[in-house]
Design goal:
Radius of gyration: 27 Å
Distance between the termini: 58 Å
Structural class: mainly alpha
Number of domains: 2
Order of helices and strands: HHHHHHHHHHHHH
CATH superfamily of the largest domain: MetI-like
Strand content: under 5%
CATH topology of the largest domain: MetI-like fold
CATH architecture of the largest domain: Orthogonal Bundle
CATH class of the largest domain: Mainly Alpha
Length: about 300
């Protein structure tokens, strides 16, 4: 009996030691990642929050004074901020909707067994792999008011009487940015949706065809329900991505003309590094963060609700 108890005691000690080693090993793997998160994300976030309540500027950050909610009160009265917010919502909404629709169409086409399918899949990814600054420079040439290919095509098709000064017009500048952004990001939608289409059970399509369902009916009642999760995740990621889009707009127009393409990302940059008003830029950044967090929270709840249906 005593021998059995000793064996059991040794076994318990061995299990306890093994579990302790596993826990230590797990923490050893997690701690470097946590340290990076703290240094790269949480520390700058806390610093930005503190700066948003100060009158800090690039010339005298150390001598910044606490000003309470003054920066946030200034935001409410700042007409340019509301223009930037409106432009951001239009830019994000149109970019995501356009990219999703075109990306879905391309994914459905390239999911079929067509000749040279893999070749076309590779070609379609080219706009996505091009760096943002290069895309912006290409866009400047394509929408050039003197010799741009876009203007030439519009004139040849009879859709315009003369060349349009896209980036010099308050009416067309934002739409030129949206068109360029859709062209750049559509391959990402196509790739993600195409991956989702590979998971749609083939037997569901076959059953629907036997029941006499048309291709449109199969799309709405078989394909869409199966890729709903992919669509929601991709849309959420792209909304956040486009809210943070900076390089395209800054390289082409820097928010002009007359704030026609001013977005929150550009406005924060201009206040912080052109106007040198770091405190006010941080306050705008906090409002921007609150908007994204609210959207993410709503979207996560919507995604969970969709999964329970």
């Amino acid at each position: 009996m005593e021998k059995t108890e000793r064996r059991f005691s040794h076994f318990q000690a061995y299990r306890s030691k093994k579990r302790r080693n596993e826990v230590l090993f797990a923490w050893g793997l997690i701690l470097p990642s946590l340290a990076i998160l703290v240094l790269v994300i949480f520390y700058p976030l806390v610093q930005s929050l503190l700066l948003s309540f100060s009158n800090a500027n690039m010339l005298n950050i150390e001598g910044a004074l606490f000003v309470g909610l003054d920066n946030f009160k200034k935001i409410i009265q700042d007409s340019v901020f509301w223009v930037a917010l409106k432009n951001t919502v239009i830019f994000v909404g149109c970019s995501v909707a356009g990219g999703l629709i075109i990306g879905m169409a391309l994914a459905l086409i390239l999911n079929e067994n067509i000749p040279f399918r893999n070749f076309f899949r590779g070609i379609a990814l080219i706009p996505w792999v091009v760096p943002g600054v290069v895309v912006a420079l290409l866009v400047l040439y394509m929408f050039n008011s003197q010799a741009g290919i876009v203007n030439w095509v519009l004139v040849q098709l009879g859709l315009a009487d003369q060349f349009i000064d896209w980036f010099g017009s308050t009416e067309y500048a934002l739409w030129a940015e949206i068109i360029a952004n859709i062209w750049n990001q559509t391959p990402f939608y196509m790739l993600m949706i195409l991956a989702g289409l590979q998971t749609v059970p083939r037997h569901q399509h076959e059953a629907a065809m036997i029941d006499g369902a048309s291709s449109i009916q199969r799309f709405f009642y078989v394909t869409l329900p199966n890729i709903r999760g992919v669509l929601m995740i991709v849309t959420s990621l792209m909304v956040i991505w486009n809210f943070n889009n900076f390089d395209l707009i800054w390289t082409t127009t820097q928010g002009g003309p007359v704030n026609a393409t001013m977005t929150l990302s550009v406005y924060v940059y201009r206040n912080a590094f052109v106007g040198l008003d770091v405190g006010y830029a941080a306050a705008i950044g906090m409002v921007w963060l609150a908007i994204l967090l609210s959207f993410s929270s709503f979207y996560i709840r919507a995604l969970k609700g969709a999964d329970h249906q």
